[in-house]
Amino acid sequence: CICDANYTGSACDCSLDTSTCLAANKQICNGRGTCECGLCRCNDSKFQGPTCEICPTCPGVCTEHKAFGTGDKKDTCQELCGSFQLIMKKKKEELPQPNDQPYINHCKERDANDCWFFFTYATKNDSSVEVHVAEELECPSGPDIIPIVAGVVAGIVLIGLALLLIWKLLMIIHDRREFAKFEKEKMNAKWDT
Known about the structure:
Blueprint: E1 7-8, E2 14-15, E3 33-36, E4 39-42, H1 60-68, H2 77-80, E5 84-89, E6 104-110, E7 116-123, E8 129-134, H3 145-192
Parallel strand pairs: 5-8
Antiparallel strand pairs: 1-2, 3-4, 6-7, 7-8
């Protein structure tokens, strides 16, 4: 194959056009990768997506510590997460929506108390990270003891009543058979007399 100007490779299947590799900040592969055949190859494996903008593991842990003051790295948080611009929101519904900006990522993580916290992060044009965190956590509520105890007691009572009814029914059937047998023997005794 003799390739046209914008193509290369043994079968001219590799595009030299880098417009498909441009990230939202107008950098090729967000400055974190190389554009090969019109697709980004990210230099760091923690960055993903078509333009190396998505980093699911980047701010999660640090955001947790910085926003709530808990976790393993709460003492070293300022050094590790100083580059994040942190914006607190009351509820998760107030967080920026994915269609607000093309590079916003919605995340949720579980903290040490088994509660879910919600946050978004966005890589801005100057490569700084803007993080919005919802203050309201979603914690699993413990089991409600009263309905469980009431259900167990009601179940035991119902089983007991059912057994009593079955026993009563069997006794009625047995008594009727005995009475019929007695009546028959009574008739035989009259005949004998």
